[in-house]
Amino acid sequence: MAESSDSVSLDMEKIYLGGKEHHIRTGCGSVSVIVYGDPEKPALITYPDLALNYMSCFQGLFFCPEAASLLLHNFCIYHISPPGHELGASAICPDDPVPSVEDLADQIVEILNYFGLGAVMCMGVTAGAYILTLFAMKYRERVLGLILVSPLCKAPSWTEWFYNKVMSNLLYFYGMCGLLKECLLQRYFSKEVRGNVEIPESEIVQACRKLLDERKTTNVLRFLESINQRPDITEGLKRLKCRTLIFVGDSSPFHSEALHMTSKLDRRFSALVEVQACGSMVTEEQPHAMLIPMEYFFMGYGLYRPCHFSDSPRSPLSPSCISPELLSPESMGLKLKPIKTRVPMEV
Length: 347
Description:
By secondary structure, the protein is α/β, with parallel strands linked by helices. 43% of the residues lie in helices and 15% in strands.
């Protein structure tokens, strides 16, 4: 009966989003892409973090009315899932070779070619941000711009490598157990929403915890192995000329990595937004914090929201919170300057 209930929930979600799923055969296996929007519009591709898919990584952003208005008015969305991370995925054969991060970046080209897409806007979270950055470095002519959330660019530190090995062992011996889920939730969210003995965890954490149960252990393990063997791509960042907007929560375990990456990018084409009291997954924890910076970022491409929304009372950002440099004419995507946006916690 549980499987039947999950299947009904999945169907309802697909109907709500109006998306269509495509399973695309590539050189390193099949990959799921959910497409929704007008295919005549410019393309925006998304790539989630480890053990996530578009439902658990981008739902908060796309369910935010103001952000949905901005994104869906201007783009056709292509949600790419890491191999075997889509809803209802079966376990990948253990005999299949584990793809490298280079393979995963090359896989994106095959996806774009399948849909007949040229240059695309890219949005990725942590591991997904690394894959899209590598893709942009290898295939510059296929990328219009990058929106990166808590991105990676260096090889794993000894601490991260060890932590990932612990998660690998948990996956191998115990599957998606409670301890592993706690490790992943610490990777994604700040302590403010994970809760404690006095404060219950938030609904977004509860929803993510439930969605993690649907992941196939072997598929998550394969993606984790790929990411844990990633090379340092710092040297190539200076040559990256596409406009880049980086978001990072100041409670993210990858906060220092995002700052390092920003320091290596060409300052004429990049901007940093730090979000206070937020973990890695800004798209879920504080999606409203992304709205105004994205709006000004897209203005550099001549893209706007279709109608005016008043400042949302839920939004932690207002124009007064944005650095004046970002609001200057030269920064409308043409010369984005590094900024530091602090989002005050609601009392």
